Please model this.
Amino acid sequence: MIDPETAWAAVLRRDRSFDGRFVTGVLTTGIYCRPSCAARHPSRANVRFFAGGPAAAATGLRACKRCLPDDVARDQVAVTKALELLGNEEPLSLEQLAGAVGYAPHHFHRLFKRATGVTPAAYARAQRTKRAEVALDENDRVTDAIYDAGYSGPSRFYAETKGRLGMTPSAWKNGGAGAVIRWALVPTSLGEMLVAATEKGICRLSFDEDSSALADRFPKAEILPADAAMEALAKGAVAAVEYPDRMPDLPLDVAGTAFQEAVWQELRRIPAGETRSYADIAAAVGKPKAVRAAGSANGANNVAVLIPCHRVVRTDGTLGGYAYGLERKAKLLEREGVEG
Ligand SMILES: [Zn+2]
Model:
């Protein structure tokens, strides 16, 4: 049993880390509380400390209805069980998680955050990132690694890791030194498309280009023709052009400045069938005055269609520019259902 001085100090601080280690009996009211109880502090002279609820109850005290001191153990068991469940590969919603440990979702969310300092979703995210890093070490094929780690699909993975598992910015600045880039030219209804990918994802998707464009952009990378493993990516890229409403989630490997990456992330949030202006994008990344810079970041995009820079138009509604021709931009938007 904790000494009374330490216990009283914990009560005065409403220190949650002492919950479950003792209870505070209040002789004048006849109730006992957990140390962190939010009720007004009793006078020290009326307080007795007990090792737990049963010891307090044995003297005739009743459990406080506000802090429910007898539930501490149950709460701790629930949080421990939740941590275990969140360490598994199957993603769980808050409702599923709370249900599995026998609590109402909202209540459990608060309880979990209080006990661990993070929300269940944040904890699950951190666990997945950790598993993905382990899997990527063991596994060349990024898509396998992503599913191995329990992500619902590559775009979730990309969003959660913010592309940081892609080539590092310094590697890109260094001309792609150390990277192997494989490429294929594939026919689409908008013309021949260049698809190029590192082992981590698509690093360039463009029209009217061949592999010499890759040598210009990534002069120090090893540039090789596509292998069998790249076929799925190339097919997915074609599907993205032909069926934008069913655009597959494909892993990307892009790196830019923090601002460029923020703009690219924002572009990926524009749903098919909608457009934004450069001013919208600048505002969305928290730099409302950086309209021109947003335009440049848009133009620096290496992965056409999948990072949908074609969904950015002028404020007056006219199409503005497009690296691969206005006709292509118009066709892409038309397919997505944007009124011309
Ligand atoms: Zn209480």
Notes: DSSP finds 15 helices and eight strands in the chain. The longest strand covers residues 180-186. The longest helix spans residues 120-138. The two ends are 76 Å apart (CA to CA).
